[in-house]
Specification:
6-stranded mixed β-sheet, alpha/beta
Length: 442
């Protein structure tokens, strides 16, 4: 039976329960004390599985924390995970996806002599989950790094032995991989005891796992009609990210000690409670401190700009907000051309606009601010991408209506390139909103 489990062996975290008919998807986070949340003020709120549950935008996921402190992957280790109640609970959870984060305790002195058995035991664990009746997607997490610590975890063995063997096992068992080791090697300050992440490190781990789950499960490089054929993938995964594989939570901000996710959630909840119909999201242009009024011409508005935010992070905040604001009718998003990745600006812009059009809200109108442009050549590059996207849109009459605001509503011309300055931004938005609601906006 796949009802919500409740026992002392694990904690399940769920976002708001969906009213949709399909049951929520279940993600089992299997691991040791890092998964459990050891060292945190509140494991139930700050462990990476708890933060992972917060990242899902539609409220259709249950994340189970099956972390067991001190456990080893090795069956012959001093505290084998497979002999712990957490393992049995993870099996009974009947997960749709499993994230395995084990290996740190296998480098401790009592277990180092058995590392030759690691690959065999790791493959056995992966295959035991793969054989479950629920046919879960299995994701192997390459362990977070370790530094000098009082627990006996050997950071060098972890890097040179455990990470390598996990990669080999994942390839042979056709499991997916999320690398938690490489991105966090420069984040020593987020691991106070040299092994366990603090609350910001835990959030960063959750974001990396979230990104890996999404990209692996959506397989966005394939046609939509082919995605469900991959590894028996449940089509419900696609419902979690109707916009596809673009937009990423801000891992760098989390590692700097900024819990922007909590602030974002508070802003979105407040906007939803007010019945906001106009959302302005982006970088410093739309920071809340610039907000002139909570309402324009009877249109409740919310400002959700973050200074210095990158386009992928802006897009994640926008797309997440769209899923939680049912009254929203208009959205303005600032995607600075020069903040797009320089070597792939055209591709990234196309990904972003396709994501907006696929956001699954017919009737929602979205305006994009791309300028200012420094040269005519850059504007021409953006125009070329947009023309191709408009041609695509003619064959897909679903989703949101997206316009390029600083082209549809011409800005004050400043030199050859014709740019929109920060001073123009509200005039552009004002004129566009007037054209949509059919009356002056004061």
């Amino acid at each position: 039976m796949r009802g919500a489990a409740a026992c002392g062996a694990f904690v399940a975290f769920a976002a708001a329960v969906s009213s949709a008919g399909s049951p929520p998807l279940r993600i089992a986070c299997v691991g040791d004390s890092i998964t459990f949340g050891a060292g945190l003020a509140s494991a139930s709120l700050q462990s990476y599985p708890a933060r992972l549950a917060e990242l899902f935008p539609t409220g259709r996921v249950i994340v189970g924390n099956f972390g067991a402190p001190g456990r080893t992957l090795l069956r012959g280790g001093d505290l084998p995970y497979v002999r712990d109640g957490a393992f049995r609970a993870a099996i009974e959870f009947a997960p749709d996806a499993v994230v395995i984060l084990l290996g740190a305790n296998d480098t401790r002195p009592p277990n180092r002599g058995r590392l030759g058995e690691f690959k065999r035991d790791a493959a056995d664990l992966v295959q035991r989950f793969q054989r479950l009746a629920s046919r879960p997607v299995v994701v192997v997490a390459l362990p977070t790094p370790a530094w000098e610590n009082p627990h006996g975890v050997d950071g060098e063995l972890l890097r040179e032995e455990v990470v390598l063997r996990w990669c080999e096992v994942a390839a042979e068992c056709r499991a997916h991989v999320v690398d938690l080791h490489t991105p966090l090697r420069s984040a020593r300050s987020r691991f106070p005891d040299g092994v366990h992440p603090d609350e910001h490190g835990s959030l960063a781990v959750a974001m990396l796992v979230y990104g890996a789950l999404r990209s692996r499960l959506l397989s966005s490089g394939l046609p939509e009609s082919d995605r469900d054929a991959l590894g028996g993938m449940d089509s419900r995964w696609g419902e979690l990210w109707p916009w596809g594989d673009y937009g990423m939570p801000n891992v760098a901000a989390a590692l700097k000690g900024n819990d922007w996710l909590r602030l974002h959630r508070e802003r979105v909840a407040g906007a939803a409670e007010r019945g906001v119909r106009l959302l302005l999201v982006g970088d410093a242009w739309f920071e809340p401190r610039h907000e002139p009024a909570p309402e324009w011409a009877g249109t409740p508005a919310a400002w959700m700009g973050v200074a210095g935010d990158e386009p992928e992070h802006v897009m994640w905040r926008l797309l997440d907000g769209l899923s939680r604001m049912p009254a929203l009718q208009y959205a303005v998003v600032r995607l600075s051309w020069y903040r797009l990745t320089s070597e792939r600006r055209e591709l990234e812009l196309a990904d972003a606009i396709r994501a907006l059009r696929r956001c699954g809200r017919p009737g929602l109108e979205i305006a994009v601010l791309l300028g200012p442009f420094e040269t005519e050549a850059d504007r021409w590059r953006a125009e070329t991408v947009w023309a191709r996207l408009e041609e695509e849109a003619q064959h897909r009459r679903t989703g949101a209506d997206v316009v390029w605001l600083d082209r549809a509503v011409p800005a004050r011309r400043e030199g050859a390139a014709g740019t929109a300055s920060a001073m123009d931004r509200m005039e552009l938005v004002r004129r566009w909103l007037e054209s949509r609601i059919g009356r002056p906006v004061e």
